[in-house]
Specification:
Elements lengths: L20 H8 L5 E2 L11 H10 L12 H11 L6 E4 L2 H12 L5 E6 L6 H7 L2 E6 L8 H6 L5 E7 L11 H10 L5 E5 L17 H4 L3 E6 L12 E4 L2 H9 L8 H10 L3 H24 L3 E2 L6 E5 L7 H10 L2 E2 L1 E2 L8 E5 L3 H15 L1
The structure holds pyridoxal-5'-phosphate.
The site of pyridoxal-5'-phosphate has 14 residues, from helix 4.
């Protein structure tokens, strides 16, 4: 007899993660495949963070600090918020799932954009709720007016990915404020800011000012991207004390491991490195965008660490381009599994990696 799993399992979307360099090496026999498919940082953690991780190793026979107090208080200092308003998680994805569990139930609705972060498909599914998707506008931006129009009495949660994955587009805080004015205060609005550090439109912390005026607002951020720590799993949510209590109550008592707690606390001290990484990313963004323009390819106005490319309709099919790049040792994400056929998403790597990508793409399209 097979096991009987919960009904909701059938509704949980299959998440196809990007191929790894090792998979490409094996499949295409390329020695030095580069992975530009998961929006990871090409730079490892800063040395001081690695030292703190190593130093904490001998204490791993002990459970982590239960409330992640030191990390939350470092975040509280950094963002000038009460620590009681800050939740930390095993990656910001854990906090999104916990928010879904805490806010959603059958007959409740969650609204997101489409295409947006693939993980959002899980939010409704884990809670047996309804997933309402609102198409991006023609520039690949969240259509915030239509998202506000989509709110009903059943809506409990609305997620805005800003900058959006996979299109990289960004709405400034003024635009977000106008949108928040239109959303009832009983609907939780999460702004997923996984890439907010990379955008050059405004001070990444401008959005923090909105927290005072909108108690239903939550900002999620992560150590995964700009800090180069995605392998460690650590993210955080800035919002209300009620939100933090809710996501804490649906999770296990020790969601954030000890190494992640010390690493996150240390990473916050290295703002100069973040600035340098953001500058390097902006330089590489320019380089890649120039290369793409020379290939006559259209892209969105990205403010993240990746480009979203529209493939020419008369050119090779998306799958062939992805395969052609992989044969040349360059792994990118295809648009189809991200909900948008005819596109590619490519993460910026180091300069040599980006040169290789542009060259390989030119050869593949030729
Ligand atoms: C990468 C990414 C995250 C980060 O998730 P973590 O669980 O913190 O690693 C969150 N949201 C979006 C949109 C992302 O692309």
């Amino acid at each position: 007899m097979p096991l009987t799993f919960a009904q909701k399992l059938q509704r949980i979307p299959h998440y196809e993660s990007g191929a790894t360099g090792a998979e490409a090496r094996e499949r295409y026999q390329v020695e030095d495949a580069i992975k530009l498919s998961s929006n990871e940082s090409p730079h490892g953690p800063v040395p001081a963070v690695l030292e703190r991780i190593a130093a904490a190793g001998p204490e791993l026979n002990r459970y982590p600090e239960r409330g992640s107090g030191a990390l939350r208080s470092a975040l509280a200092d950094r963002f000038e918020l009460p620590a009681a308003h800050i939740a930390v998680g095993n990656g910001s994805c854990e906090l999104l799932l916990a928010a879904a569990e805490a806010l959603l139930e059958p007959d409740a609705e969650v609204i997101t954009a489409a295409p947006s972060f693939a993980m959002y498909g899980h939010l409704a599914a884990v809670a047996g709720a309804e997933w309402v998707q609102v198409a991006l506008d023609r520039q690949g931006r969240h259509d915030l007016d239509r998202m506000a129009d989509a709110v009903t009495e059943a809506t409990r949660l609305l997620v805005v990915c800003n900058p959006n994955n996979p299109t990289g587009t960004f709405h400034d805080s003024g635009t977000i404020a106008a949108f928040l004015e239109r959303v009832p205060r009983c609907v939780c609005v999460i702004i997923d800011q996984a890439y907010v550090e990379f955008q050059l439109v405004e001070d990444p912390d401008s959005s923090l000012d909105l927290l005072g005026g909108f108690p239903n607002l939550v900002l999620t951020r992560t150590f995964s991207k700009v800090h180069g720590l995605c392998g460690l799993r650590c993210g955080y949510a800035l919002g209300s004390a009620e939100f933090r209590q809710a996501v804490d109550s649906v999770r296990q008592p020790f969601p954030v491991n000890s190494l992640a707690q010390v690493a996150g606390t240390e990473a916050l001290r290295h703002t100069d490195d973040v600035v340098r990484r953001v500058e390097r990313n902006a330089t590489e963004r320019l380089f890649v965008e120039e290369g793409l323009t020379e290939l006559a390819l259209q892209t969105t106005d990205t403010q993240a660490n990746f480009s979203w490319i529209t493939l020419p309709e008369d050119g090779s099919a998306e799958a062939e381009v992805v395969e052609g790049l992989a044969r040349r040792g360059v792994i990118v994400r295809a648009g189809t599994p991200l909900g948008s056929p005819g596109h590619l998403r490519v993460t910026y790597g180091t300069r040599p990696e980006n040169e290789r990508f542009i060259e390989a793409l030119g050869e593949t399209l030729a």
